[in-house]
Amino acid sequence: MSLNICVGESGDRLTRASKILEELTGQKPFVGHAQRTIRSFGIQRNEEISVFCSVRNTLANDLLERALRIKEYRLPSKCFSEEGTFCFGIDEHIDLDGMKYDPNIGIFGMNFVVICGKSGTDNRVTKEEAILWKCILHLQRFLSTVTTRFDPCTGCEIPCTTHVTYPPEIVKEIDQSNMESSVEKHRRHLCIGQTFSHTQWPKHIKNLQDGYVKELERILTEKQSDIGYSVKLTSAVVESKNDLKQTADWYLFPDQIKINNVTMKQIEPIIDKLFIKDQSIIKIKNKTKTIEQQLEETNNLPVFSEQITCERLQGLWVLVCCHNQRDQRCGVIGPILVDEIEKYIQKTDRVDNIHCLKISHIGGHRFAGNVIVYPSGTWYGRVLPCHIPLLIDAHVSSSSSNDLKEKLKPLLRGYLDTS
C-alpha cells in the first residue's frame, strides 16, 4: 500500500507533509516530482511536489483499517480498477486514530493506493475480488467487535431483553473500532454546573447565552502556558435554588471538590489559585504522592474569599455525555444511561454514595455512550444500559473490584492523566 500527500509545491508545506508520513510509517518518505510544467498552477517540470511511502504486512493492514474507518468502509465502485487496485483519499490526516493536531504542521489530505494480490502462479486480482476482500475485511472487524466488545453485559441475553435498548438507527452509527487510548491527554476536569437543560446546550458550550463558559474558556486559554497542563472543560446540568445563569457551581475532578456560586468576576482569581498556584487538595505540579494517596490523606480544602464556599465531593461520581446538538448519538444515548444509573442507585439504596451528572461534549461521540467515573478518572465508551450495574459495582465495591474492572476492559477508552 502506498500513502501519498501531494501539496503541489516545494518548500515548507512539503516538509511538513513529510513529517506526517514519517510519523505514520516510521519511514523517511520518498519525494515525488512533477512530470511536466503546469503554468496555471505555478508548477515547474521536475519540481518536488509530493511525498509518499510504501508499507506492507501488519503496518499496511493497520493503516488501511484506520483509513477505511473514516470512510465508514464505504467506497464507490469507481475507486476500484479492473486489475484489483483501489484508491481513496481522506480530507484531514488528523481523522486517523492516534493522530493529533499540531499547529506547527497543519492539516493535510492524503491518498491511499492499495495493490491487491493473491498466492499462486496467477496472482492477479480482479475488480470484483478486490471489492469482496474489502467487504470481508469490514465484516471480520464487525463480527470480532460484536462477539467480544459486549461481553461485559453479563447476565443479559444478546440482544438484551431486560434493559432499555437504543434505537436501531443510532446503534448502526456507533463506531465499533478499537477505542483504546482514545482519550485526549488532560490532568484536570472542570464541570461548570448551571441550570441550563442539556437540550439547551448549543453545539459549542461557549455559545451559551449567558457568556459564562465563553469567559471561562477565554481565561483558561490565556493562562494555558502558566497552567502548564490541559484542563478538560464541560458543562453540567445541576438543580439549584439559585438562578445559575450569571454564576455557576464548579465541580473539579479528580480533586473531588465543589466550589459554589462562582460569579464571572471570580473566575480569574480562582483559576490562579487552583491551576497556577496549585492550591487544591490535589497537587499536580511537583507532586510527591499519587492522586489516590493525596485524596486519602488530606481534606484541606482550598481557601477563597468569604463570598465563595467550597466543599468536598464524597462517593462515586459518574459523568455521562448527553450533548445532543454536538452529536445525536450521545444526545439520545446519554439520557437513557442517566435514567438507568439513577434507577440502579435507588434500587441499591446508594443515594448518598453515588452521584450522576449529565455533561457536554468530551470527545469521541462515535463511541457513544461515553461515561467517565471519578475519582479514578476512568473513561468508558459504547456503554449499554445493561452495563450499568457492573460498572457501578466495579468502582464502588472494594472486595471484587479488580475482577469486575477486568470484565469492563472491552469498554475502556482510557484514563485521566495522573503522571
Tell me what the structure shows:
With 419 residues, the chain is of the alpha+beta class. It has 2 domains: 2-141, Ribosomal protein L5 (50s Ribosomal Protein L5, Chain: A), CATH 3.30.1440; 163-282 and 304-418, Glutaredoxin. The chain contains 11 helices and 15 strands. Strands 2-3-1-5-4 form a 5-stranded antiparallel beta sheet, covered by helices on one side. A 5-stranded mixed beta sheet has the order 7-6-8-9-10, with helices on one face. A 5-stranded mixed beta sheet has the order 12-11-13-14-15, with helices on one face. A hairpin with a 3-residue loop joins β8 (247-253) and β9. α10 packs antiparallel against α11 (401-407). It is globular and about 75 Å long. The relative contact order is 0.11. Residues 49-123 form the Large ribosomal subunit protein uL5 C-terminal domain.
Features:
Thioredoxin-like_sf, 2 domains, globular, 11 helices, 419 residues, 15 strands, alpha+beta, Ribosomal_uL5_N, Glutaredoxin, 50s Ribosomal Protein L5, Chain: A, five-stranded mixed sheet, five-stranded antiparallel sheet, Ribosomal_uL5_C
Question: How do the helices and strands line up, and which of them pair or pack?
Answer:
Layout: E1 2-6, H1 12-25, E2 30-33, E3 48-54, H2 57-70, E4 86-90, E5 110-114, H3 127-148, H4 168-171, E6 188-194, H5 212-222, H6 224-227, E7 231-237, E8 247-253, E9 257-263, H7 267-276, H8 291-297, E10 309-312, E11 316-321, H9 328-347, E12 354-359, E13 371-374, E14 378-380, H10 388-396, H11 401-407, E15 412-415
Parallel strand pairs: 6-7, 11-12
Antiparallel strand pairs: 1-3, 1-5, 2-3, 4-5, 6-8, 8-9, 9-10, 11-13, 13-14, 14-15
Helix pairs in contact: 10-11
